[in-house]
Amino acid sequence: MSVPALTRYAEWTFGALQGDLGISLSRDKPISDIIGTRLRNTLILGLSATLIGVPIAIFLGIIAGLWRDRPPDLWISTIAIFAMTIPEFVSSTLLILVFSVWLGWLPGIVTTPPNAPLVEFLSDIILPIIALALVMTAHILRMVRTSVIDVMGSDYIQMARLKGVPYWRMVFRHVLPNALLPTINLVALTIAWLLGGVVVIEVVFNYPGLGRLTIDAISDRDLALVQAIALVLAAVYIGLNLFADLLTLVANPRLRTMRY
């Protein structure tokens, strides 16, 4: 006698809440064990790209915004547009061609086993990190530039200029704090996007992360593994958005309202 679908769904949901995502159909292993290692590898890749790309994007965005329509802005904006428009598989292939095939400096394909220690991944993930950080840096850079330009054109900044407030004091005390607040949500959304957009990069570099596992699970018709990966990615995405909203609320007192 077959178990009703609603009952099976309730059992699966109850197990998922306890960390039991079922058994992989093609690998005959607990899905939690399979996903755990791959999620670690993807988080390492995404976190490394974030730690490198976000500071660079904020710095270049500030420069482009403060020197609007001048040579620094034109160069930075042009490079950012190219980085945003070039597909990830093209930029990844070009990085492999230049740094691995022509120069021979870095490995183009990751051959490290998925469950290897973190130290063994250090030399293999440099090119994937660069490829992943390019698009992220370009998007955040454009947002920071736009925010800086908007704040520089606001009434209170114009009033500060008329009162003779020193330029750099005005920039650091008034422009940057207000211009960087909108980027908090964008950074969180970009990091969440990285977990989904990393699929292409992981496939190109043969990186043993969650994106590569997703492609393998789809090829193997492993529905249980695919739905478990989708659940994990959705939970991470929602968690990052919630964290960004709370951080924005803490950083901007104007968004907090109190009722008595």
Task: Describe it.
It is a single chain. The chain is an all-alpha fold and 260 residues long. It has one domain (30-255): MetI-like (MetI-like fold). It has 10 helices and no strands. The longest helix has 36 residues, at 31-66. The protein is flat and about 80 Å long.
Helices and strands in order:
Elements: H1 5-17, H2 31-66, H3 71-85, H4 88-102, H5 126-152, H6 155-162, H7 167-180, H8 183-205, H9 210-219, H10 223-251
Helix pairs in contact: 2-3, 2-5, 2-8, 3-5, 4-5, 4-8, 5-7, 5-8, 8-9, 8-10, 9-10
CATH homologous superfamily annotation: MetI-like
CATH topology: MetI-like fold
**Number of extended strands:** 0
Order of helices and strands: HHHHHHHHHH
Keyword list:
flat, 260 residues, mainly alpha, MetI-like fold, 73% helix
Can you describe this structure in just a few lines?
This protein is mainly alpha-helical and 260 residues long. The protein contains 10 helices and no strands.
